[in-house]
Predict the structure.
Amino acid sequence: MMPLTMAKAGESVTIRKITGKDETRRHLAELGFVVDSIVTVVNEMGGSLIMQVKDSRIALDKTMANRIMIS
């Protein structure tokens, strides 16, 4: 496993684990970041990752992206 920040632009990855406090994990789940879902890194801009999650594009800062473990 590695953090989401290690994924390259255009790469689709599977979420394996989400770390952090309960409220942080719940917030990410509400955005669509749930275990075993597939997300795609669209771009990296100004220290944030632009992610494709289902039918939405979401920007995450690197501290939040580091809490999402992928494979």
